[in-house]
Model the fold of this input.
Amino acid sequence: MPLDLTELRELLTALNQTDISELTLKADDFELTVRRGSRVEMTSIAPVAVPQPSIAPPPEPIKSEAPSPAPIVDRKLAEVVSPIVGTFYRSPSPDELPFVDIGNRIQKGQVVCIIEAMKVMNEIEAEVSGEIVEILVQNGQPVEYGQPLMRVNPA
Done:
């Protein structure tokens, strides 16, 4: 039973919303034990290939003679990236307005979102002033270290 990174994230997110304090998942080639308040422990019975996240730049668009749309990533835009692994939240609490929306002007050092990691709410600040042009992550979605969260058109 192969378990990929997305499935593992979904499992951990689901467990986080329950009162379960320990879960053990066993298969022929691995055993995974998750305990609330401790590290994830994985014992491999046989070699297991774990895909590593790629941080390579996006491929260049293919040039053709017909007009093509602009590339998705605009080189002049700055990205707000996640400094940690956790859960992305756009507002300080579910009943409050988001820190920022698309089109908002922000200042360097302004809180733009929260990343929850191990029940600690970490405020993420903008590293540049400018205008929010894109929010790349959905509220409550798990994020990885270095994952782009927002794109800002610097002022």
Q: What stands out?
A: Helices lie at 5-16. The longest helix spans residues 5-16. The first strand starts at residue 22 and ends at 26.
